Every structure is written in structure tokens, then in C-alpha cells.
Amino acid sequence: xxxxxxxxxxxxxxxxxxxxxxxxxxxxxxxxxxxxxxxxxxxxxxxxxxxxxxxxxxxxxxxxxxxxxxxxxxxxxxxxxxxxxxxxxxxxxxxxxxxxxxxxxxxxxxxxxxxxxxxxxxxxxxxxxxxxxxxxxxxxxxxxxxxxxxxxxxxxxxxxxxxxxxxxxxxxxxxxxx
Length: 178
Description:
alpha+beta; single chain; 12 strands; 4 helices
């Protein structure tokens, strides 16, 4: 029985892949390809990003609200594409390649690979210094994670607010209704 050689991909190799709308991520030499999201996943993501952009337009500080696919470097050999993210600074229009600034907030709308979002991405985000991580379960609620290691968990069923985004309010119940 022959065993195929397993080749880890370097960051340099990963960055030579052709531009794509595929959701490709690099985690410690492994290229992860996520399946296409569902319509409902995308609808929820669109609603969240729209609300964040409304909030950002009303704030007097420099804020960038972005959504995937957008490569963000969370460490050497760790290039991920959060569903949505908030940077407390402006990203330059000319930004090329992976964003080298870690977002303060990352958001993932859960789909079929829940363990990847709940465990792998949470640990990578925490290690990189992400201050807050929202996991949106399209069927039930939002989980807001913060604190050291993103270990503090708050289940949001009604209204999401956060000290990270002063004045921001998200009606979680309305968000998840069809």
C-alpha cells in the first residue's frame, strides 16, 4: 500500500494561487476550502454588514467594515477570510494581498463546518489579538465571545450591543427571522 506524500503549503506558495472568489484559507500549511455558503447564510451576513456600515457612517472615528472573501493575515502561515470584520482604522483603497492588520471584531455565520469556526478560527483569532468574535447561528442566536482567549461567552437572543462599538445595536431576533 503506497501512501501519498503530504505537502504543506508555504505562505509564499499560497499567495501565488490565482485570484479567486473561492473561500480558501491557509492554516499552518494546510489549505482549507470551504463550501459555498447557503442563501440564508449570505442573507444574514448581508444584514449584519449593512447594520455595521450604518453604524460606521454615523461614528466620528475611522472604521472599516469589510466582508469576505478578503484575505487577512492572523500570523505567519495563517491567512483567513472571516465572513465579516471591523477594523478600528481605515484600510487603504490600494490594499493588495492579505491585510496585515488584525481586525478588532471578526464575525462568522455558522454553516456546515461548525467545529472549524467554533474551535480552530476562535483560537487563531484569539492568539492574533482579535478583541471580539461573533458566531451567528442562523437558526437560533448569536454567541458573542470576548476577553482573554475569547473565552468569555454571552448568548444573544434579543439585542446585541458591545463596548467595542459604542452606540452600535443589532436586533438579533429580527436578524434571524426570515
